[in-house]
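Figure 3 (text version): C-alpha cells given as input.
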C-alpha cells in the first residue's frame, strides 16, 4: 500500500506550513514563500508540492498536467481593538465599513447589530494590505458576490476605503494595537490580545470564526472562487488551502519512492486538522491523483514502466 510508505522526503513550499503530526517517519522540508513564488518553484522542479490559498501564475507550456487538490478550510477573521466591546457584524456592514461608507463605531448600522452594547464615538481605523494576500481575496469575493462592492474590487490586493494602507503583515498587526482599529487576518496571523468579531451566519446567528460546518461544494481549482456557505450555522468568511503538484511524478530524477512519499503526505494532510485548518468533510475530499510512468500510483504493484 502506498500509504504504508515510511521513507522518502517531501519538499513543500508555500504560504501554509504542513500541519501534519507524526506519520510513520515521513519527512518533510518546508520553505515559506508567496503563492506565486511557490508555484514557480513547483513548475521549475525545485519543490514537490505547493501549499497555497490564492491564485498564482499558470504553468508554462509543456508543464503538467497540474493537479489542484483542496486539503483544508480556514476562517478569515475580522480583528478589532475596542476594549470591553464584544462585537457582532454581518458581511454587508463589514463590506460597507471597508468601502468607507460606515466611518464610526457608533454608526446606526453597527448599533443595530449590537443593541445591548455601548459603542464608542470613535472613527473606525480600518487597515488593509495593498499587496496580494489570501484574507483580502476571500473578503473581496464575499463583498462582490453579495453585491456590496463593484466587480473591479474582486482581487487579492485592494485598498477600497481603508484608512491605513499597508504593504507588510507586521505593519497591519501594529495597526491593530490601536484602539478603534479593524482589519482582516488569515489563519496564521496573530496579534497580542486579539479581539475577533462574530459574524452573522446564513441562518441569522452570530458565530465565532470557525469552519466546523465545512463547505457545500469544492471549486475545480485555486483560480475558482469558493461558493458562499449555506449552512445555517456556518461562519461565512472562509478560504481553501490547495496542494498543487504535477500529476505525472516521473520527471527529472524523481523515483518511485519520492512519488510514494508525496502520495502519503497528501493523503494524510487531507485528513488531519490543526489549530488553524480544518479538513474538508470526507464526502467532499477529492482523491489524490498521481501517476508514475503513466500508471496510477495508488495501485502501483511492480517496477515502473521503462522510460520512453
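Below: residues designed for each position.
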Amino acid at each position: 500500500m502506498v500509504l504504508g510508505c515510511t521513507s522518502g522526503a517531501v519538499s513543500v513550499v508555500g504560504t501554509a506550513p504542513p500541519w501534519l503530526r507524526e506519520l510513520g517517519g515521513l519527512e518533510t522540508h518546508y520553505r515559506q514563500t508567496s503563492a506565486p513564488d511557490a508555484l514557480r518553484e513547483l513548475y521549475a522542479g525545485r519543490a514537490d508540492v505547493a501549499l497555497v490559498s490564492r491564485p498564482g501564475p499558470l504553468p508554462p507550456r509543456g508543464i503538467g498536467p497540474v493537479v489542484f487538490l483542496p486539503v483544508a478550510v480556514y476562517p478569515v477573521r475580522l480583528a478589532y481593538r475596542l476594549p470591553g466591546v464584544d462585537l457582532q457584524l454581518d458581511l454587508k456592514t463589514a463590506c460597507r465599513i471597508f468601502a468607507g461608507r460606515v466611518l464610526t463605531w457608533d454608526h446606526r448600522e453597527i448599533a443595530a447589530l449590537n443593541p445591548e452594547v455601548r459603542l464608542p464615538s470613535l472613527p473606525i481605523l480600518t487597515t488593509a494590505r495593498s499587496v496580494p494576500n489570501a484574507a483580502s481575496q476571500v473578503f473581496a469575493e464575499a463583498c462582490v458576490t453579495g453585491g456590496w462592492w463593484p466587480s473591479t474590487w474582486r482581487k487579492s490586493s485592494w485598498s477600497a476605503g481603508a484608512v491605513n494602507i499597508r504593504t507588510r503583515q507586521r505593519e497591519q498587526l501594529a495597526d491593530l494595537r490601536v484602539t478603534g482599529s479593524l482589519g482582516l487576518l488569515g489563519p496564521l496571523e496573530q496579534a497580542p490580545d486579539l479581539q475577533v468579531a462574530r459574524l452573522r451566519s446564513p441562518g441569522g446567528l452570530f458565530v465565532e470564526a470557525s469552519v466546523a460546518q465545512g463547505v457545500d461544494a469544492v471549486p475545480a481549482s485555486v483560480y475558482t472562487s469558493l461558493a458562499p456557505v449555506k449552512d445555517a450555522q456556518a461562519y461565512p468568511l472562509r478560504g481553501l488551502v490547495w496542494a498543487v503538484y504535477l500529476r505525472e511524478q516521473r520527471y527529472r530524477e524523481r523515483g518511485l519512492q519520492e512519488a510514494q512519499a508525496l502520495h502519503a503526505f497528501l493523503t494524510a494532510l487531507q485528513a488531519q486538522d490543526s489549530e488553524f485548518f480544518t479538513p474538508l468533510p470526507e464526502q467532499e475530499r477529492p482523491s489524490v491523483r498521481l501517476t508514475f510512468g503513466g500508471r496510477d500510483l495508488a495501485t502501483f504493484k511492480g517496477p515502473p514502466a521503462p522510460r520512453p
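The mean pLDDT is 86.
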